Fold:
Amino acid sequence: MTDLAPLPAGSGCRDVPVLKQRGQREVFCGLTGIIWLHRKMQDAFFLVVGSRTCAHLLQAAAGVMIFAEPRFGTAILEEKDLAGLADANVELDREVARLLSRRPDIRQLFLVGSCPSEVIKLDLARAAERLSAAHAPHVRVLNYSGSGIETTFTQGEDACLAAMVPVLPATDARQLLVVGALPDVVEDQMLGLLADLGVGTVRVLPARRSSALPAVGPNTVVVLAQPFLGDTLAALERRGARHLPAPFPFGEEGTTQWLAAVAREFGVPSQTFDAVTAAPRARARKAVAAATETLRGRSVFFFPDSQLEIPLARFLTRECGMTAVEVGTPYLHTAIVGPDLGLLAPGPVISEGQDVDLQLDRARAARPDLTVCGLGLANPLEAEGLTTKWAIELVFTPVHFYEQAGDLAGLFARPLRRKAVLKAGVPA
Structure:
């Protein structure tokens, strides 16, 4: 089946020297991942052990009113906790007991570390073990760090899923495990495509409910739906699973290559593959073409933010006709994004890490048509005349697989269209 959606010849940017910089960074907090994870895992609860600032961040990011009942909350660390005048573990045990008595629907409880809890060295791993034993078998308590001190915001999901891997049941069955949180409607589309291809047992992590947690073992083949899951992948490999490298399913080409990698692994005939993918591929190409009129011939510059940068640069350059000036990413995990790097034509600077002042100088010198960056840089760059796209919007919006390809292209076209309207002086 070597003729199944063959990849173009050449190594693309795989062998391009990488500009590595370490200095001042512009990053968003890892607690943000709770916003999409709490919607995905329907019987889980995320309890942040942090400050009032953490609580305000989550409510602002989620748009949740204070009297709503979301599946997340904050155990506030008061001044007496930070000063060591109170036993934070005793208080945490009390708050968890109150929470579980009020919310009997909770089956998984995540204790999420924050900058304040890490500064005072609160051992949430030991607390999770203690609380899990106390509330078993009704509730399993796990912990992970959502601190933004040393991480970028998408690593919150990576840390959460990596914490789940050691407690997954074992299996020797051959199966495909798709890893990465997707909106339910997108996940259903993906599962429908895989079922139509005839791929056997397909499981997902994270599952929507704790009763559907996947098993893992030596015959588990892992394919990632998100490129920022390096720690989770490493944890699964320690359990014996094998990684299936593939371009990420952004746009028509990326989705086709992602599905083709799975199809080759599971022996799907090329005729079946073509029959299943022909119609959605055509729809995706047509949808992307509507935005390509705005994007073709424009330049784009990526600041490191979400770790989606390399797959998105591949999509924009190969499917939308854009030119990448620089593609920055917080961490360059070649085992994960290597297939996308191989499709990205040489030309852009590939940078890992950040010295934000130096990167700002390069962006100002390049004057790209579109700059993809974090919220903290967008408004200042707009004031300097650069058109920007918020990187975090690309994580919060459904953008994977065929049916979302046009929406993905539209996210990049919209700021360019808005600028054209404002420049022409026509009311939007």
User: Anything to note?
Assistant: The chain has a mean pLDDT of 90. The longest helix spans residues 270-295. Residues 81 and 87 are 7 Å apart (CA to CA). The two ends are 51 Å apart (CA to CA).
